[in-house]
Amino acid sequence: MSRRVVVTGLGAITPIGLNVNDFWKNIKAGETGFGEITKFDTTDYKVHLAAEVKGFDPKEFMDFKSAKRMEPFSQYAVAAAKEAFADAGLDMSKEDPFRVGTAIGCGVGSLQAIEREYTKIVQKGPGKVNPIFVPLMISNMAAGNVSIQLGLRGKCTNDVTACSTGTNNIGDAFRSIQYGEADVMVAGGTEGAVCPCAIAGFTALTALSTSDDPKRCSLPFDKNRSGFVLGEGSGVVVLEELEHAKARGAKIYAEVVGYGCSADAYHITSPIEDGSGAARAMTNAIDDAGIKPEDITYINAHGTATHHNDLFETRAIKLAFGEHAKDLKINSTKSMIGHLLGAAGAVEFITCVKEIEEGFIHKTVGYETVDDEIDLNYCKQEYQEEVPYALSNSLGFGGHNASILLKKYEG
């Protein structure tokens, strides 16, 4: 029999707050984190806005030497993980370190390190490359650095599934605890890729909004949407086997009850047009929880504000829920923080936990104009109501679909 899994710790580094409390306060207020890119000169670029992390000083979260040996994506993950760990009240001197694991993913690793070191090769020759270039750059180093910083010696993994990365890592951590591989997992996603390569690459794909208005650039589900806005940051949570959490008197935020995945097997960037892949991920998560689609009242959508995603995700929701789809409240956290790529699903998972805790569904900021077939309730306003279940969707390039289902903890 599988074991029950609960959420006992939350940590976040985001464009609208460097901890969970500030992030959540700004989510409730409908604040956005969009502004002019400051990390490089965008004069020759079509895209000038991003959702950057602001005021982050790694030395506030780790020693100087450790910080120097990490790129931003790893720094953000360590900072978020330390907050989540402290929030959970875990004491590793009382734990078997081999029963506490790590599952933290990053979509692209450090493009900045690649840019920087390749420039050295071209200008000064291969002998000038940083000796730790590779461990700085590779995406698994977020998980590696977190396990080192916290002394976690259990299972340590790094799912990389583009924009589904955060959700897949939390989902796989959930499975690891369910089936006895670990008692505690520190899980989530991270990304720090506001840099020339990323902006130029996503612009060439025509995936990014070219709007220069910080108030009207990220518009999920709106008829005037024009693409996503690149964000950065990290979301990390502590998942724990229920009896283990109860035995140490931990605060329990919510229970994870379902996880579902699928593949579109269709296109490297576009979701399948009928929504069947994402629909299957949702129904798999619902079936995993042993409930009915009608038990769900709220979905935190992938909601990127690209033309294809929002249309095909809407079709997926209609396919999964049938007539009940019109009764759902659906929002997009990306309307405030942009698209955090590998961190997106993890930060949105934290949003769902807080919404369940407070009985609050945030509005999709900027959503104004209905677009034909995209005709469900995308939360033009916030709602203060009980949230018994929260279903969070993540859809990644390559056709990766992941849905995770949270429930209000009832003992």
If you had to describe this structure to a student in words, what would you say it looks like?
The chain is globular and about 65 Å long. The protein has helices at 20-29, 64-68, 72-88, 111-124, 133-137, 141-150, 165-178, 196-204, 242-247, 276-289, 307-321, 334-337, 344-358, and strands at 5-13, 35-36, 49-50, 100-106, 156-157, 184-191, 233-241, 254-263, 298-300, 329-331, 360-361, 383-384, 389-396, 400-407. 57% of the residues are buried. With 411 residues, it is of the alpha/beta class. The protein has 13 helices and 14 strands. The two termini are 18 Å apart. The strands form three sheets. It has a ten-stranded mixed beta sheet, with helices on both faces. Strands 2-3 form a two-stranded antiparallel sheet. Strands 11-12 form a two-stranded antiparallel ribbon.
Properties at a glance:
411 residues, alpha/beta, ten-stranded mixed sheet, two-stranded antiparallel sheet, 14 strands, 34% helix
Count of helices?
Answer: 13
Share of residues in strands: 15-25%
Order of helices and strands: EHEEHHEHHHEHEHEHEHEHEHHEEEE
Mean model confidence by pLDDT: 98
Write down the overall geometry.
Answer: globular
Please mark out the parts with pLDDT under 50 across 5 or more consecutive residues, or reply none.
none
With strands numbered from the N-terminus, the spatial order across the biggest sheet is: 5-4-6-7-1-8-14-13-9-10
Number of strands: 14
Measured on Cα atoms, how large is the radius of gyration?
Answer: 20 Å
Please give the largest β-sheet. 10 strands, mixed
Helical proportion, percent range: 25-40%
Distance between the termini: 18 Å
